[in-house]
Amino acid sequence: MTRTRSSANAAGSRFEREIADCLAAHVDDRIDRRVKTGSRDKGDIGGVRLHGQRVTIECKDTARLDLAGWTCEVADERDNDDALAGVVIHKRHGRGDPLDQWVTLTVREFIALLAGVALTRRRNGDGGGDRSHASAPSQPAGGVHRPSTVFAGRPL
Asked: Is-above-0.85 flag for pTM?
């Protein structure tokens, strides 16, 4: 049977609902599907927080992988949502359990999740490409910021 636009939309909505319900059951009962917002989309699932900041989730139920396209899409949605990081949860065909689905993210997003600090892209002064830098974490009231994550022997 060939998939139509209507059946693809229904499958995507069903997949989003399954993932939202799974996250709500295991993480936080305030997690739920988001209302579609058009060109300023903020991801498919809302209410996910880590380190006190939002995490954007984009869900995909497709037969063909497009990791590069999906990670670009979730990066735009992360920016729209002013979130810490963005991840893609995509269908693992042949596995119906929501806990068995795939999660894809870039190393930039992975570091943001581990360190609690968003890495942003900026242009070098010479125009010779992009480099990453960490957004400065806020200092705790009356104290020195102590990173909770260590990477390659040094705090992130």
From this structure: no
